[in-house]
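Explain this fold:

***
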Amino acid sequence: MKIKAIALNTFKEAIRDRILYLLFFFAAAAIIFSRILALLTVGDRIKIIKDVGLASLSLFGALMAILIGTGLVYKEIDKKTIYTVISKPIHRWQFLLGKFLGLMLTLVVMIGLMSLIFLAVVFVHTFKFEPRLLIAIAFIFIELFLITAVAILFSCFSTPILSSIFSLAFYLIGHTSWGLETLIRKLKSGVWRSLAQFLYTFLPDLENFNFRTEIVHGLTIQPKFYFYSALYGFFYTLFILVLANIIFRKRDFV
């Protein structure tokens, strides 16, 4: 019940944040603009609409998670409300988990609305519903779970501005670290190859959640890849939340 109360309170606070609606507006505009862009582009129009729409969901969803998430814990510390919270019979992990679930509920609502707009634009163009698009959207949600956990982690020990920079760096690195695999194959055995292998092992690979290309182009994906990607997202998110809890527990608010 304590976690639920914190989650609902976090949701109420987040839903009143103006930046959330600004990002929602730009996301909706980008999705709707994709249809105009498709008309001006040579090629398969529906593929362009799908690709731009899914990319908009991923990008603006990540921005929502980062810009809202990086201030969740810091605001409580800055406003001194954290003293009231820790004085009550509540564990710090419950506080963090409540914040995480509250922001996830916010993202589910906002991304859900954006997804409806996206699916409506696709339907207007094709006059049919494509269930495979829901798979891509589902994995965007899994990616946002991880990004939210990262934003909360940085919020535990840094200011919102620095936390936003760190979280955005995590997002960008996560979508480019796949290039290390190609680099490893080209490097000869030695220190640099070992370093590249080390970075490839420990850096996040957010491309595990990106099935946009396969779904847009109608390519076949083996179910096991969905399972492995979901498992990767679950355990990575859990690891980040545990790390955030360890750091938060060491904070001295007395």
